[in-house]
Amino acid sequence: MPERPEQSAAGRFDTVLIANRGEIAARIQRACRELGLKTVAICSEADRHAPYGKTADSFLCIGPSTAAKSYLNQDAILLAARLAGAGAVHPGYGFLSENAAFSDAVEKAGLTFIGPTASSIATMGDKISAKRAMIAAGVPCVPGPDTALPDDPATIEHIALEIGYPVIIKATGGGGGRGMRVVPKADVLHEAIALTREEARKAFGSPSLYMEKFLQHPRHIEIQVICDDHGNAVWLGHRDCSMQRRHQKVVEEAPAPGIAPDIIQPVGLACVQACLQIGYRGVGTFEFLYEDGAFYFIEMNTRLQVEHPVTELTSGVDIVQAQIRAAQGHGLELNQGDVTCEGHSFECRINAEDPETFLPSAGVVTHLALPAGPGIRVDTHIHAGYKVSPYYDSLIAKLIVHAPTRAEAMTRMREALADTEVEGISTNIPFLRALFEDDAFSRGETDIHYLEQWLKLRRAA
Ligand code: ADP
């Protein structure tokens, strides 16, 4: 008799349902297969011909093309898991990956959620409770109170004055770069609060806001952690994801250039401490702004991230396999002392979009040539003849390189980009090629605003 899901407690699942699509569905399936696990792929009607469906042990269509009716439909996913005999669900990134109710529903159905508990997701999903947990663990945070803004205008003015202008108003339940507003000076404070409150109420279902110092030229630096269920946690080094357009990362690298080990070391250890204090399990990322030699925590992502490969290539750890093993109840296979990060890695997100206007570009890929060679990795689900659907995120591939030094990794990426050909749809490859020729980027002298400014200058030229 097949094992019933009720019996598939941690450590005993042998079949994983991958509740996602695209490159990450392919990536997770590979990790499962290498661990000897069976896989269940799911799809919406638009993804019926996804290549990872053919290599999965089961492939089930769970709903129409609209994500709300398929990849976000919790009941349909749980039904598919039951029908296919899955003992665990891997949420990937996006979709339901940071949905505490989904983590709870998966566990209540007797399956293992490959990710943290619902309570960890909920704590970290609320920016104020996350900030409080970080302060308690000694993680440095952006100056500003760890409480929601009161209603009284005079008290709000006082808080802003204490922090010092410019300040940023953020929705407690915000995400995806939405629900925040910079306030340069006192006379626009109340208007900014009213607007952000209304946005937060509409977008996140809660009008709760908080205020912190607005940092003017920070870099985005993040720390990858992995934890087991036995009280062990390690950090796997750091990444720089400052190259952003509209708060969306475009290029990531590991390690973050020019950060002295004695500056980052205590921050990494504080992240580990925070994980232990909140009983975190699985993989997670602590995101920081870094300015004038200091780190300021902004949020924790309680899931696998798009940019995990740059850390895999520098640390030598297969993060997806480690995540699955932790969910199986296995202890971590490495101690902090075993973690060594070598060389330098870059990732380019290849998006199906116009390189000038950034408008999404759907259609059939008529020709595809991917680079290969030492230190080159491509994570993708597309092939010649693949139809890029307009329904989802425009990420079609991740091009990742690794080399002994940052300069060599940049050269390797330039060559890899030169060898990449995608025809039939537009992609951002021409834009990525130009970016890898940029001097300031080559020197590692960029902050989170650099890419937007660079684009503005290019348009003006
Ligand atoms: P989200 O959850 O919506 O992604 P974050 O808190 O991670 O929100 O912030 C998203 C981006 O907004 C950051 O990467 C940074 O570019 C900017 N940002 C957030 N907080 C600040 C701040 N205090 N000062 C300057 N920029 C900020």
TrEMBL record:
GO terms for molecular function: ATP binding; ligase activity; metal ion binding. Residues 131-328 form the ATP-grasp domain. It holds the Pfam family Biotin_carb_C. Keywords: ATP-binding, Biotin, Ligase, Magnesium, Nucleotide-binding. Residues 12-456 form the Biotin carboxylation domain. InterPro entries: Acetyl_CoA_COase_biotin_COase, ATP-grasp, BC-like_N, Biotin_carboxylase_complex, Biotin_carboxylation_dom, Biotin_COase_C, CPAse_ATP-bd, PreATP-grasp_dom_sf. GO terms for biological process: malonyl-CoA biosynthetic process. Gene3D superfamilies: 3.40.50.20, 6.20.290.20, ATP-grasp fold, B domain. NCBIfam families: accC, PRK08591.1. This is Biotin carboxylase. The gene is accC.
